[in-house]
Amino acid sequence: MAMADQPAGKSFRLSMLLYDTRYRSLTIQIIMLAMFIIGVIWLLDNMYTNLAKANKNPDFAFLSAPAGYDINQRLIEYTSQSTNARAWLVGLLNTLLVAVLGCTLATVLGVSIGVMRLSKNWIVARLMTVYIEAFRNVPVLLWIVFAMAIFIEEFPQPKAFRGDAATASMLWDSFAFTNRGWYTPAPVFNSGSMAVVAVFLLSIVGIFVFGKWAKARQETTGQILPTFWIKLGILIVPALLAFFVMGMPISLSYPELKGFNFKGGLHLRNSLIALCLALSLYTAAFIAEAVRAGIMAINKGQSEAAAALGLRQKRVMNLVVLPQAMRVIVPPLISQYLNLTKNSSLAIAVGYMDVTGTLGGITLNQTGRALECVLLLMMTYLAISLSISMVMNLYNNSVKLKER
Amino acid sequence: MTNKPYVRTEMLSEQPAPLGETGVLKWMRQNLFPSIPNGIISAIAIVAVIYILMGFLPWVLQPSWNATSLRQCIDDPNITGACWGVIRDRFNQLMFGFYPHAEQWRPVVAFILMLVALAPVLFDKLPRKMVWFSMIYPFLAVWLLWGGTIWGPLMVIAGFAIGYFANKFLTDVVGSLAAIIIAVLATIIWWLYGVGPVATGLSSILPIGIAEVKSSDFGGLMLSITIGVSGIALSLPIGIVLALGRQSDMFIIKTLSVGFIEFIRGVPLITLLFVASVLLNFFLPPGTNFDLILRVIIMVTIFASAYMAEVIRGGLAALPTGQYEAADALGLDYWQSMQLIIMPQALKISIPGIVGTFIGLFKDTTLVSIIGLLDPIGLVASIQGGSDWNGVVWELYTFIALMFWVFTFSMSRYSMYLENKLKTTH
Q1: For residues A86 and B68, which has the higher predicted lDDT (pLDDT)?
Q2: Are the Cβ atoms of A28 and B253 closer than 8 angstroms?
Q3: Which chain B residue is nearest to residue A340, measuring alpha carbons?
C-alpha cells in the first residue's frame, strides 16, 4: 500500500525522508552522524574551556623532559635523567615482558589442566574442576595481591641464609628464594660467545628446513622419520660442539650473599614473579575451559573413523583430533592472551613498573598531564591489542574450514 | 535310553558378586586405579590432597574468633589457627565501608529488595505483576543508598509519566512521530531543568526524606555490589543496541559501533577508571562536579557494554539466515522482527556469554580500589594500617576471596540452570 501511493520519483515530500525506505536509512545515518559530531564538538569544547581555565593546554613537550624517577625493573638503559618518553618505553617493554612470560606459562598450565579435566581418572578430573572453579571465580586483582603477600610474608629474609645457624639454604648453591625476590644464576657472555649463539640460531633455522624436507620425503616415499629426536639433536649438538670448540665462552655468574643482600646472578623481583604467576594461574583456568570445550567439540565419529583407517592412538590425536580442535580452541585462546595483556596493567597494585606504572602512574602524577598521559596510555594498549588481534585473524583465516 | 543327560532341576542360589566388582571397590578400581600408571597418578594426587588439607585444615578449624588485635593471636599460645577475629572485628567495615552505622539498615533493605526485584526477571514462574516493582526499584535503591529527600526520585519518575502522557495526547494532534519527539524532549527538559527546583520546592513544603550519605562513605562489599549491579543492568540494553548497530547495513552506524566496541575492548579497564577519576570532569561543562561513584559506574558500564555487544553479536551471527528471512516474509518491520523473532533466540544462544560478562564485570569492580575507592580490597590497606591489625594478611584475603567466590559461582550456576531451561533441542 505504501508503494502504491508513492509514484517513484514524481513528487518529493519531506515526510518521504522518514517513511520511504529509499531515503530512510540515509536520513537516520545523517541524523546519527550529526548527533555524533555535535557530541564530540561539545566534549572537545568543554575540554578546551576547562583546560584553558586550569592553564593546561594539551602539550606533549613533557615527554622530552627528564623523568626524574628511578625504575628498578628495566630491560634497557634508563636513569632518572632519562626522558619521560624513555620511561614510557621502559614501561612498555616491562608490560610486554610480563605478557609474554604470562601467556607462555598460562598456555602450558591451561592446556595440561584442560586435558586433565577430561581425564577418566576421577580424582584428577575433580581436582582440576576445583582448580578451575576456584581461580576463575575470584578477581584477578585479589590473586595478584595474594601472590605478592605470599612472596613477602612466607619466603625467608636474605639474612636467614647467613652464618652457621642459617634457617634457609640455597638450592644447589645457585638458587635463592628470598622475600626480596628470587636470585638465579645468570649467563655471562664472554668473547667468542657470539659464535655459539649464531650456531644455535642457525640450527633453529636448520630444524625448520629439516622439518619441511622430512615432510616432503614422507609424502613422496611414505617413509616416516623419527623427526622429534633428530630435531632435538639438531637443536643441541651443534651448539654444544661450538661451545666447546670456542673454549666455553659462556659461563654462569652465581648469586652470593654479600652484606645484607645477594649480589650477582639474576635478580627476579617479587613484583614480577607475583604478577606473572597470578596472571597465568588465573588465565590458565580460562584457557583450560577453552581447551576442554575444543576437544569436546570434536565429534566422536572423527576419532573412530581415524581408528578405523588404522591410525595409532597417538596419530589419531595428532593428525585428526587436534588439528580440528585447534580451530575451536585458538580464537578464545587469543582472546585470553589479550585479557592477560590488559590485566597486566594491574601491575600497579604490586608496584611493578609497567607502562601503566610509568606513564599512567608516576609521569602522570609528577607532570600533572593527565589528559595526555591517559591518551598515550590508551593508544599504547590499543596498539598492542590490535596487533594481537591481527595475528589472530591471520591464523583464523589460515585454518578456516575451506567450504566448497 | 536310560542314560538321560544330567539336567539340573532346581536353580542354584544367587552368589554375591565378587568383592572387586561391587560397591566402593569396583568404583575405586574403575575410576582411580584402572591401570598401573593411572594408579600411580591417583596415589600421588591423593597424597597431595591429604598434604594440602593437613596444612590448611588446622589453620581453618582451630581458629580464634574473639581476638581484638593481631597481637593477641600471636601472644596466645593456644591459638594456632587463623585469627578470624579480624573479620568479626571489622565485618561491618568490610560490608559497608564507612557508611554511617545508624543508616546501615538501608543498604540491607536495598539488597533484599533487589533480590525481590530480580526474582521475576530470573524466574518466570512468579506473577508478572512483580515486574512493576522491578521497574521502580532502581529509583528506590538510589534513594535508599544515597538518601535525601524522597521528592528527587519521585520527580525523576514523574519525567517518565510526563513523556508518556505527552505522547498519548499529542499523537492525535500532531501525528505519531512528532508526538514521540516532543515527548522525549519534554522529558529531557523536565529532568534537566524541572526536577531540581520542583523537588527542592516540594521538600521544603513537605519534608519527607532520610539522612543523606556521601559517596565517599560508601565502601566494602556494598560498593562492589552497587557498582556491579548498576553496570550489569545498564550494560545489557546498551550492548544490545551496539550489537544491532554492528550488524546493521547502514555504513555510518556500523562504523561508529565498530569503532566504539573495538576501542573499548582494546584498552584495559584501569585506563577507563583513570579517565573516570581524573579526566571525565574535563569533558563536562565547567563547574559540573559529578560524583566519583557515578563516574565509575558510567565507565564500567561503557566497558561492559562493549563486551556485551560482542557476546550478543555472536548470538546474532549464530542464528540461521532463514530466521531473518522468515521474519521479513511475515511482513514484520525491523524492530518487530528483532523484538519478536531474532532477539529472543539470539539472547538465548548468548546466555553463557552474557553471564560470563556479568561475572567478569563483578570481579572487575575490585579495580576501583586502585583509584582510591574503598571496596573490600581497598579496605585491606586501611585495616592493616591500624595498630590493631597491622600485619594481618591471610584471613582478610581469604574472606574477601570467599565473598566474591560465592557471588560469582552462584551466577555461573544460574547460567547453567537457564541454559537447561531454555534448551529446546534434545
Answers
A1: A86
A2: yes
A3: B268
Domain range annotation of chain A? 84-150+270-399
Strand partners, A103: none
CA pair distance A65, B81, nearest whole angstrom: 53
Q: Which three cell numbers stand for residue A346?
A: 594491574
For the segment A46-63, the average pLDDT, to the nearest whole number, is 80
What number of residues does chain A have? 404
The percent of residues above 70 in pLDDT, for chain B, comes to 97
How far is it, in rounded angstroms, from Cα B327 to Cα A174?
71
Extract the C-alpha cell encoding B226.
Answer: 552497587
Q: Mutating which of B366, B396, B412 best tests the A interface, going by the most A Cβ atoms within 10 A?
A: B366
B-facing residues of A in 261-290 (CB < 8 A) are none
Chain-centre distance for alpha carbon A362: 24
The beta-carbon contacts of B250-258 under 8 Å, at least 24 apart in sequence, are B250/A25, B250/A28, B250/A29, B251/A29, B252/A29, B252/A30, B252/A32, B252/A33, B253/A28, B253/A29, B253/A32, B256/A32, B256/A36, B257/B309
The secondary structure of residue A347, as a DSSP letter, is G
Q: Residue A268 is inside which H or E element, if any? A: strand A266-268
CA A226 to chain centre: 33
* CA B39 to each of CA A124, A328, B44, B49, B51: distance values in angstroms, whole numbers, following the listed order: 11, 32, 9, 15, 18
Phi and psi of B211, rounded to 5°? -55, 140
Q: Per residue in A387-402, pLDDT tens?
A: 988 887 888 787 776 6
pLDDT in tens, B104-126: 888 888 888 888 888 877 777 77
- Which domains, from first to last, does chain B contain? 218-426 (1.10.3720.10)
Query: Would you call A52 an interface residue with chain B, using a CB distance cutoff of 8 Å?
Result: no
Chain B interface includes A166 (CB < 8 A): no
Task: Dump strand ranges (E) for B150-270.
Answer: 209-210
Complex-level ipTM: 0.83
What three-state secondary structure class fits A256? strand
Q: H-helix or E-strand containing B344?
A: helix B343-349
Which pTM value belongs to this model?
0.84
Predicted confidence (pLDDT) per residue in A104-126, tens digit: 999 999 999 998 888 878 888 88
Number of helices (H), then strands (E), in chain B = 19, 2
Contact A137 B256 (CB under 8 A): no
- Summarize pLDDT for A246-261 with one digit per residue, the tens: 777 777 777 777 766 7
Domain A84-150+270-399 has CATH 1.10.3720.10: yes
A35 touches chain B (CB under 8 A): no
pLDDT at A1: 43
Verify whether the Cβ–Cβ distance A371 to B400 is below 8 Å. no
**C-beta atoms of B32 and A122 within 8 A:** yes
- Compare CB distances from B253 to A29, A124, A142 and report the shortest one's residue: A29
With contact defined as beta carbons under 8 Å apart, do A279 and A141 qualify? no
Q: Which of A153, A345, A370 sits opposite B278 (nearest CB)?
A: A370
Flag if B278 and A138 touch (Cβ within 8 Å).
no
Q: Could you tell me if B87 and B399 are in contact, meaning their C-beta atoms sit under 8 angstroms apart?
A: yes
The verdict on a CB contact (< 8 Å) between A382 and B271 is no
* CB contact (8 A) between residue B32 and residue A121: yes
Entry field: residues in chain B: 426
